[in-house]
Amino acid sequence: MRLANHTTNSPGTEATSAIGLLLLVLAVGSASAQPQIPPPDPMTAQRFESRKGYLANIPAEAVLDSAASGWNPTERFERRVYRIAGAGEFRFTVTVAPPSIPDSAKNNGGYTYVESDSATKGGTAFVRTYYLSQRSVRIEVIPYGMKMKPYLDARSAIFNSFRWQPGADSPRPDIDPSFYVPRQFQERERGEE
User: Fold this and answer.
1) Is 155 within 8 Å of 59 (Cβ atoms)?
2) What pTM was computed for the model?
């Protein structure tokens, strides 16, 4: 006599299995419905802040050349040079003094700037200079050769990552946004209203 191999599930086991399957389907569907955060743009993945009143993003592989960077207290400018080996450099120069803003400057509602370019032995260097009443920042993207092409193509994203820090429109060289006191409060503290 042959016995049938037959198993029966109790109603509780079937319900538990069905609920588990439903939760799995919902979890998978929910995960795929969530907006995916795009990976960071490698051309603007590294952010730096200068105590001289601005911040900007540069490519992840750019390295600060500390020998070519520093503050000149006599002429009141700071230069920061970031290099990408074999490709080129990003040079930021902030000058703390009332600038002469050219008539050709553009204003996009928040920033006043001038764009220019110049020939170098490695190719065309692209420059954007931002202005406030008490300082300016010149950003130069300088190629050493053809390996710089992807960075030159992404220069707009790098230029557009530039931001002034609170308090940058001050004659003080160092700006510490965490201790910045708006001008109207400074005047009240001195009794000027």
Assistant:
1) no
2) 0.71
